Structures are given as structure tokens and as C-alpha cells.
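Morning!

This is the sequence you dropped in the shared folder:
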Amino acid sequence: MDATPLQRVLEATGYFPDGEPARGLQLADKAREGRRGRTFSPDASWRSPSALTVYFKFEQSTPSDSIVGEWRREIWNEGFSPLLWIVSPESIQLFNGFGEPKQIGDAEANRIATFRNIDSALHDLDALAGRVAFETGQFWRQMPKIDRKSSVDQRLLSDLAHLEHDLVEMGLDRHAAQALIGRTIFTQYLIDRGIVAPARLSRLAGHSTLPPILRDRNATARLFAWLSETFNGDMFPPSSATNTPRTSYLARVSDFLAATDPVSKQTSFFPYQFDVIPVELISAIYEQFAHSASESERGNAREHGVHYTRLSAVSLVLDEVMDEFTGRETVLDMTCGSGVFLVEALRKLATLQTVAGRPSREVIRKTLYKQVYGIDMSEAAIRVAAFSLYLAALELDPDPQPPEALKFQPLIGRTLFVGNAHTIEQTRDGKEQLADRDGLKKFDLIVGNPPWSFKGKRGTAARRKSRAEGVPAQPRGEGLDFLHRAIAFSHEKTRFGVILNAMPFFSGSGTGIAAAKHILRLLAPVTLVNLSSLSGWLFATASAPAVVLYARHRRQPADQLTVVQVPWSAAGARTHTFDVSPSDVIRLSLAEVEKNPVKLKAAAVGRRRDLVLLEHFGSSFSTVGAQLALFEAKLSDGLTRGSPKNQTRDARALKGLEVLEAGDIGSMFIPASLARFTLSKAQWPRAPETYRAPLLIIKEMVGDNARAIAAVSERDLIFTDAFFGVSLPKNQPTLAYLLTAVLSSSLASWFFTMTASEFAVWKRKLLIRDVNLLPVPELKTAAASSSGKRLVQLSKLMHSEEGGRDPWGALDQAVFDLYGLDEADRAVVRDGLFRASWQWQAGREASVSAASVDPDLTNYARLFLSVVSGWLSVRNERRMRAEIFDVPAGNALRVVRFVLEPGSGASSVDVVKVNGGLNDVLATIGRRLNVRIASALSVSRELRVHGRNEVVIVKPSARRYWMGVCALDDADAVVAESFAGAAA
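The structure's back. C-alpha cells below.
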């Protein structure tokens, strides 16, 4: 093959920068190794950090649409590739890999764009689908029609849901229906893979394909009996060889495989190739089955925390935690479900033991039987796990022939166990396989997604009663309990990669913090990856946000805690991918967390400058709770009416008072007239003193402007449990207005984002303890100050709807003055309001919109310069100026250069017009600084490139990278690097 045109295209689009393959690019045989496909043979492939794959195919002449359709069908079944490039000397065609295959006209329907293979067109191709555009999310913003909703997993799950529903409606027991579907998929896999050939099918069952066999009950019985005998193991339940379902049930399954509509009886195109579909998709099928069961069974699934772990999350865990493994390690998943972690671990372990080519059957079977272990309470889940592992072993097998040579040993009772992980060694199988004279078997890696379920107060009490001595009381949910149990299966070098409920780590609950700190000490060094921003799609059925805990997996100080935040991205829900940059990583010491636990959440949602400001506030100010206590006042929950059966407490003292409901209040607004309270009893009426004016009332739910909703009432009124409030002394009415202004400010929004128990990790909600912890100046002194008086005046004006044209801007400035914030701290707080808005869709979309030269990059440059100028002013011999490269708005990156010059004077910010494209800018800078910028960008999404008297900042175009707080952090890093360089 003449690869020159392909390499030229790869170079022009960033996949082959500086004459070397970018990270993730595989060429020739490497690109073809491990593919599940039948006929498509790529010439290059690029795997993104989130496991999506782009395929490149070179053809001397443009292939026919029918051939492209065959390739695309195979890629679609593989499920990981959103894009296929077909390169010829004359053109480059891009095809949607997630688009559902069509029998006729597939290539035309899924062709995204065609580019001529000339320099000017390659610039446009790079801007659309080059590696940088792909990694920064620019590609996804430009290609809204490429969506995982049309990928193989979504279509197959939908079709199987209909199939299962129909079988149950026809009278087949749900578990039997699910078993029949699983058996059918396995059989079709064997046929598609060629392990069972048409000739063998004809001899066994009289037909060469599966659909007609399923329409013949006797033929089906013969085939299933042979399969059960041939493959042995746990592939089929013991009864499957003798209990053949009724003809009507088999016919409905046959309709599915023949793509026959059960109502119209019309036959359409069957898109599936089961030898290509990822084995891990079985896990999704299991979750769907678990949640499609009867109401009581659905409750059981919820109670035990059944959640499908998406393949991208599995890759996120295993790619990190198995780094530098030899392949000889053992793996345990104590809540393995359908085995999605075990399947991928099996693949990786077997491959790591292979020097070249595909692993041998001996290596695969040894890994399967001796290195991969799982436990689950559900027998159905364990059977699916065995099924999935057998399929994975067959998929890895370099030559799975003849069928009679492929017998499997049973896994259930040997490496897969049905039972409670907390007591599994007390069962017969667990005693034989997981325990010996020295205690429990020890594993090199423990992975999984333990239940996040909460079984009520009784369940929590029972768990706490059984906890070991010295272990803090565990919070709601079982995740940390499972980690404690996992430690019993570990040795001192065991690695951990576990997905957990994030709330114990970030919620601020005393119980949760104590339990989390205990785990962090036991497993140090630890990395926590905050996935709470992805709750909408990652674990859509879960009742809590997620965090990944890695432990002992990297060479780092034992006292170090690394916190990674994975931000929301426009592409995430469409592609099931993650975006992580160096600036999303903060390292703390365990001592810092021990001293100030709130830093853990702040590190998970904020930046290093946020932590510095929090520390300043903690040492410089009192808190709302402490200040209220000086006036013998405290925040209280409002009235809970309750259901009639719960209305048992006397509420007559409240009769006739006005009642403030959730929909009545606005920011600094309470209606002049409200409905009156008429009940004699309520569940929690609260004391009458709770509702005496002057009242400061705060709504639990944060407003959609990302500010707390607070208001003052100068008349007695009842507020419901949608609020909490405080009755202040009648001789201190100004304090209510002052506190309302502070609570409504961007400073409060920033603080709540960094520290609140639920806001910014789970719900748009504040708790009393969140507000009590807000730092405030001494209230009497503050109220008497000029800035305090200004705030009280503004607050009263805003209550009267006379706040002026920009009341929020004026209010924020007055609060900044009250707290004595400098310009850098004001920038941090302003960005805090922006980051608080990311809890709403509009704010998330704003965070990934392209940064503009003015104001975004200009403000960034000025704040960066303010930090460096502070250091330069000590000697007053040099100054720094900034150059903002005005690249086209559609480019995926932004570039700012900072130049150090002799002489004193003010810093300046200049905008440099760009002649040519972004690649020309990067190439020019790279030549001047002797740095291969394109190659460096293939490793890191953000770059700081130092020259003798300059530093160049290159980052994705999204606004979240160019906030003021980012400028301050970047400048701090540059100063530190400069000192380190000078010392060296």
C-alpha cells in the first residue's frame, strides 16, 4: 500500500505530529490487532483517552458505497467508533460510526463530509475532525448528529426490551425469558464467529441458520443439548438441555433474529453481528433485565444498588489502576454483577502476558481459571458473569476450533461465588476457594462498583453495630463498608479501583467525613476522581453522585491525596466520554484534610486559589452560626404540615399567621399578603418564637441565577420546611438586611460551591449547616462600617424593587469591600458565581462555549500579569507584556504569549492578528522555542511552554479554561517554575 497520502493526512490533522504518532495512534498491524471485526481492516486507528476509536482506511481509489456500508456495519457493531475516515489520493471521506446501518444507501446516509486531499481542504478537515478538535470537544459541538443514542448498545437494548416484554406477555416466566435470550445470543455468537459452522448446524438441527432452527422445537432441543454438552462449564443452566421452551416462545425469538416485525410480519434489515458486539454489552443487558422485572424485583434491584457500569467508566478505572502490571496479578470484584470489570480485566491480563500477537489459549484459560474472581448476591448476575467471561475467552482465543476442544471448566463455585461478600468465606464454596489456614485469599487488585443503596435507619444501625473496633460509624449507604471488607482480601501492595457514592467524601457530614478520613488513612496514597458532574448520564438511575477511589496505584508520597475533577462536557452524554486536563488535578496532603476537611470538596470542584482563599477566610472571620449565637439566635427549619396520619402535634398557636410557601419568595422579595394558616395540628409546627419578626428567611433551593434566595420579613409569618430562617432581636433589624445581602452575593455562591454539603455535587440545595459555616465579619462592627451601611441600604432598596440598573453588581462590590478583598480574590469569587451556575444546563453550556478575545482572554491576561508584576516589582528592573493571538473563533485552541522585557513600567496586553491558521501559529512558536508543541499537545490538553524570556499558554478554547481563577493559578505555576529553573 502506498501510505504516503494517508500519512500526509494524519500529519495535517494532528494524529502524526512532528513525524511521530500521537499518543493513542496505532498503525498497520497494530491498528488491526485485537479488533473484533470480520472484513474491515484499518490502516490506522486512534484511541482517545476515553476509549473512543477513530478508524482510518487508505484506498488507492474510492471504494464503492456497498463496501463502505459493510465496513460501517462492522464498525457500528463494535460500538466504540464514532468516526471512519476513508482516505484516497484525491479525497478524504468522513462517516458516522454511530449511525445505525441501513440495508440500502447506508454510505450516503452516514457520510458526514468529503474533503479534497489538498492543503487548503486539509486545514478545514483539521478544524472539523483533527485530533485537537476531537480531544477538546470542538468536533462534538460541530457534529450534533453523531450521538451514542443511535449506537449498537442503545438499539440492541431497545430491541431486547421489546423481545423480553413480548415473551413475558405471552406467558413465559421472566427469568426463563431472560435465560432464553441469553442462550440465543450465545448461540448466534458461536455461529457469527464461525465456531459453529452452517454444515454443523445442518447436521445437528436440519437448518444452516438459527432462525429456522428456533421455529422447530425438536431441532432447538437437539442444538441446545449439543451446546450444553460441548461447552460444559456454566454457559447454560443445568435444565437448558432438557427443558426446551414452547414453540411460540421460540418463534418470537426467531422473529428477532430474522428482523421480522412481530405485528406486521414484515422483514427488515438485521444490523447485528454478535461476534463483533462487545462482550461488555452483556452487562447492560443484565442491568436492563434487573430493572425490567416485576415491581418487587425492581425494588430489590434498587435496594441492592444495581447500576450498569458504563464501559467508559470501566476503562477509566482499569486503564489507570492496571498500569505497569505484568499480567500475572489476581483480581477480585466483591460485587461483580454481570462481570463487566472482570471481562475487561481478563482481556488486559491475558494480553499483558503475551509478547507478540494474540494470547494463546493456554494463557487465556490460566488467566480465566486462576486470576479473575467475583462475588455477588444475585445468582442470575453470577451466571451472566460466567457467560460474559466465557465469551471473552472465546473472543481472545486465536483459533477457537474445533468446538469440542473448547470445553470450559465451571467458574461458579471456583472463581465466581453467589453470596454476601461480607460472609462469603462461611459458605461451602467460599471456604474451599477463598480461605485457608492463613486466613482469606489475598488479591493484587480489587475493583468494582459496590452498592450505593440505603436500607433505612434499621439497615444503618445494623451495619454500625457490626463494625469492627476502631472503625468510625459509617454513613448512609454501604460503599465504605465494602472497602473495609475488601481490605481483608488485600496485602500491603494491593491496588484498589472502586466506584463509590461521592457523598461521604464531599457532603460535609460529620459521620461521612470521619469515615472517609479513616479510609483515606488506611489506603494511602489515594486518588479520588469526582464524577458528580456526569450524574445525568453516567449512572442515570442512581440516587447519588459517583467518585472513583484509586489506592496504592502510583509511586507517590504516602501522605499525598490527589483529587481529580471530571467536568461536564457537551460531548459526554452523547459519547459517554470524559475530559480531564492537568488543571483538573489538585494534590493535597492528608494532614491538610485532617485539619480542614472542607478542603476535600473544594479540591473536587475548585482550583488551588480557591483553597488559599478558603484558608484566609477561615483564619480571618467568624461564621454565620457563631455570630447568630451572640444574639441567642439560630437558623431553624420551617413548618412541616405532614400527611393527616402524621399531623399529631398541637399547632393552634400558629392559627391565623400568614404562611410563606416555596413559590412565594424571590430574591429579597416576600409578597405583601399571604394565605393564613388554618390547621390545628401539624407534623412539625415548630415553636411560635421561630416565626417572630424581624425574620431572615432562606430558601433551601438555590435560585437559577446561582445565588441563594434570601429575604427579610418585618412581620411575623410562618415559613414552611422549604426554607430555614432565624428570628433576630427586634432592636437589631439592620442585621437581617446585612446578612440577606451577604447571603445573596456572589461571595456566598462561591463559598457554597466550594463547601456546601450537596450543592455543586448533587442537588441545587443548601442545608442549615452550609449557611452556618459561611464566614462573616463581626456583625455589629460590619453594620456600623461604611461598606456595611451601603449593603444595608442596597438590601432595603432591592427589597423595595428600587435596586437600580445593576443591583447585583453593586451588591457584590459592596460585599467585596466589606470583606476587604483584593482584585485577585474578587476574581476568584466572581468566577465562583460562574462555576455555581454550572449546576444548570445553561451554565454548563456557557462553560464550554468558546472564549473570546474580549473580555475572556483579555481579563485572563491582565490577571496573569498582575501576579507576575507583583514579583517583578520587588527589583523593578523588568516588566512583562501579553500577546493574545486572535485565531479564528472556530478553532479548538486559544494561545496567549507572555514576554519578559527589560525596564520598569506598566504591563500591556496586545492582540496579535494571525496570518494563516492555528497550526501555523503553533509551528512558529515551536520553531522559536525549539519545542515540538503538536507532540506535546498529544500528551497534555494544556501547555505552558517556557522560553528564555517568554512563556506561551496553549489551552482548549472553552471558557472554563480561561477564567480569572485559572489565570491566577497559571501565573502562580509559572512563577514557581521560574524559581525552580533558576535554582536548577
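Headline: The radius of gyration is 31 Å.

More detail when I'm at my desk.
O.
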